[in-house]
Amino acid sequence: IGMMGMIDPPRSEVRQAVDQCRTAGIRPVMITGDHPLTALNIACQLDIADQGDSDRQVITGPALAAMSLEELEGVVEDVSVYARVSPEHKVKIVEALKRRGHFCAMTGDGVNDAPALKRADIGVAMGITGTDVSKEAADMVLLDDNFATIVHAVEEGRTIYENIRKFVRYIISSNVGEILIMLMAPVLGLPVPLSAVQLLWINLITDGAPALALGMEPADANTMRRPPHDPDESVLARGLGSYILWVGMLLGAVSLVT
Questions:
Q1: How much is the average pLDDT of 238-249?
Q2: Residue 6 pLDDT > 70, yes or no?
Q3: Does the structure show a pLDDT above 90 at 136?
Q4: Among 3, 31, 39, 245, which residue is least crowded by beta carbons within 10 Å?
């Protein structure tokens, strides 16, 4: 009598979440305790792995344990699925990825997952099935234990960061203009252009309200269609600092002339 294999189908929203990861420059990797063929089948359904050379795309726990960290580092960027893996193997995977210069997020729910969650750049614990130890070690807790929620969190984080940049660009460039006006007017022999009350009024009305509106803008259509930026970059990176200076100087010069 033949035995029918049991397989848990992936959630319907996960395939779309994986596609969003790829367009956003995020590479999803499956780490599971399931059989390698089962894991590869699910990974192919989700487009995490391709129907091709399974030996190249899948590493099992025993093979992973036998590999040195340097050996794993040499193949870690080609492997999409780790099967029959124990929680302690996750630390080794994280180390190899970080050595290759990747910013690594790791999910986990058990007590033994805590070291990997702590070692990863972002540890993600399960809120429903996760243990208290894993939640304490993690940076983020998924209340619904859903991978798609991680992708939504990435989109929300990118939106918040870009809105902060918009807020900073507007508020500082306008303040640079105000400072230039107040400094240059006496030098040019002009009367003081703004009183203290007028400066307060400008900051409260014309600066504050528009800046708050910029900080609440919804996500841009291309938010999840660009690669991630360097996590160590300054908020003034990518030309924002120079933009603030020249726009502020232009505002101040125009105001002085008029």
A1: 92
A2: no
A3: yes
A4: 3
